[in-house]
Amino acid sequence: MGMMGQGGGEELKKINEVLTAPQQKRFKEINIQAQKERALNNPDVQKELGLSDAQKTKLRDIQTSSMEKSRPLMEAVRNQEMTMEEMRAQMQAMQAETGKEILKVLTDAQAKQFKAMAGVEFKFDPNEPLGGGRRRNG
After folding, report:
1. Residue 105 in contact with residue 59, Cβ under 8 Å?
2. How many Å separate Cα 105 from the centre of its chain?
3. Under a CB-based contact definition with an 8 Å cutoff, are residues 36 and 121 in contact?
């Protein structure tokens, strides 16, 4: 998985062709901020942090467990037992908890380095999708 997610390698290559070195660095930082703890699944991030095989396994186990916990919520929406808004709220709470659990896998030095890798905070527009989609004006 590349910085931009599944299949992002070719896209990232094209993006890096037009960005200067400082822009590439900032793009990587913002990408880490957007992905939050999920960025730790990226092999490049894992390598830079020096994660052990045991840590990588633990991260995978936490992610798998989180996905399994979310399935009943999606099923409840499909069965009209809960609304999308209710599911979203519960998923956000679960994701926050999973994020905390994931960060506990890192050593203090790795956690500090991971925070540094995200760079200066970028303020995302909460009304814009992170997937890169564009909205049409009126």
Report:
1. yes
2. 16
3. no
Compute, in degrees rounded to 10, the torsion defined by CA atoms 110, 112, 116, 118.
70
**Are 119 and 30 within 8 A, CB to CB?**
yes
- State how far the Cα of 5 lies from the Cα of 12, in Å rounded to an integer: 10
Q: Which helix (H) or strand (E) covers residue 21, if one does? A: helix 21-35
Q: State which amino acid sits at residue 121.
A: E
Question: At 14, which amino acid appears?
Answer: K
* 22-59 tens-digit pLDDT: 999 999 999 999 899 989 999 999 999 999 999 999 99
Q: Which two tokens stand for residue 74?
A: 């999606």
